Structure formats: structure tokens, C-alpha cells
Amino acid sequence: MEITNIETIPGKTITTHFGLVCGSTVRSKNAFKDIGASFKNMFGGELKNYTRLLEETRQEAINRMIEQARAIGANAIVNVRFATSDVAAGAAEIYIYGTAVRVE
Amino acid sequence: MADFAADLLNWGFWIFLFVASYFVGTYREKAHLKSIVEREKRLLSLPALTLKFAEDRPVAKTELVMGSVVIGGDFFKQVVASLASVFGMRISVAEAMMDRARREAVLRMKEKAVGADAILNVRIEGLKIGERKKITGIEAMACGTAVYYSK
């Protein structure tokens, strides 16, 4: 599965468009890990727990999008976009969408 | 007298935290900036572009790459920011923080595209972390399409 965030796959031609595919995950922070973060927050620096959490969450959303694209017979996804929204206090939604295509 | 001592201890704690977080925060920020500048120099050969079109050369592979980082503010910055926002001043401590986060995100993205010739259509997004008005940290995420030309 080739994924790009531009309109084409360079070097290949798009033969079929399958329409929109998307994947989303809603994750909340771990209250126990958050104690460590707020402690670290006194002195600044990278909050590695949060970085990891968000990276995992994004990967999960991408995987869901890929699954969906595979199910309808696409072999690439173009023009992928990321969006985030706050669902509740301490939780965030990551939403990823793109156009599923078949390339040759 | 006991009251006074308790007050002093209470205030002393916050003042100590304020001063300590200033020194620790500044030290960490400088160290981080130094490492950013160093890595930026090393990765100069891999340009991150906002263009959408690849060069007119045969392409071997394309790949979505991204990098993200969460940077937390320190106690000193929080106090300065809340003071500055009373008078509508420029919050330079926050500016430095945003700058660091974005540059770090772009660097991490570049580090994931090992052997690529260019990264097209780079987008940088931000996300505030923390409940309501309280800012625990900020996230910067950079993503783009890495292009590998066939040699």
C-alpha cells in the first residue's frame, strides 16, 4: 500500500478512483502516566509519554484507513490529510482520510 | 511567628520552583536548540519542500513520512505567560517553545526518510495538550511524501 499526501503517486498512473477512505481513533491519556508528566512539566523538556501516545494513535488510525482501502481493492491512497478534535476533557480524536485509488 | 514561618515556607517553595525552573528550563532549551541546529546541518541535503510535484525523473518509491514531538512548558514559562497575557504583551517564551517543537518535528520526519531525495508537500500541524485554558504542552507534527528517485 502506497500512501502519499499529494494528488498523485509520482512515477505511476492512477487507473481507478475508489473514493474516500478514513480511519479514526479516540484516545485518552493515562492518569498515572499523567502524574509523571505534570511533575516533568515543572521543568520543561519533551514529554516522551505524550509523544509516544500520539504516535501510536496516529499509526492506529492509518492502519484502519489502510484496512478499509484494502477491503475495496485499492493499492494506494493519495492526498492523505490529518485532523484532530477534542472529544472530551483529556481525550483527543485523530482522524485521517484520503482517496483510495488503484495505480499502475 | 509560627504563621509567618509557614507563610515563608509556602512562598519560599514557589519562589524556589520559579527560580529553579528558570535555570533548568533555560539549560534544557539551550541544549535542545544546539542539538536541533546540529542535526539540521547534517540533514541539509534532504530538502523538505512545500511543493507538490516531483522532478521529471524516474521515481523508485514514495512513502508517507511523519514526525511528531510533544514539548512541555515549565513553571517559569507558565507564570511569565499568564503575566504577559494580562497586559497583552508578546509571549516570547512561548514563541521559542513553538519554534523548537516545529523544528524538532521536521527533523524527526527527515530522520525517518532515510535515503530519500526530497520530501514533498510538507505540512506542519499543531495540537494543544492540556485541559481547557491550562497548557501542559504543545504537539507539533510534520508530515510529507518522501520521494526516492531511481539511481
What does this structure look like?
The complex is a heterodimer of chains A (104) and B (151). Chain A is of the alpha+beta class. In chain A, 33% of the residues lie in helices and 45% in strands. Chain A has a 4-stranded mixed beta sheet. Chain B is of the alpha+beta class and 151 residues long. Chain B is 50% helix and 27% strand. In chain B, β2 (118-129) and β3 (137-149) form a beta hairpin. The relative contact order of chain B is 0.21. The interface between A and B is large, with 32 and 44 residues. β3 (43-46) of chain A pairs antiparallel with β1 of chain B.
| Fourth CATH level, the homologous superfamily of chain B | Hypothetical protein apc22750. Chain B
CATH superfamily of chain A: Hypothetical protein apc22750. Chain B
Q: Given this structure, which CATH class of chain A is correct?
A: Alpha Beta
The arrangement of helices and strands of chain B along the chain is HEHHEE
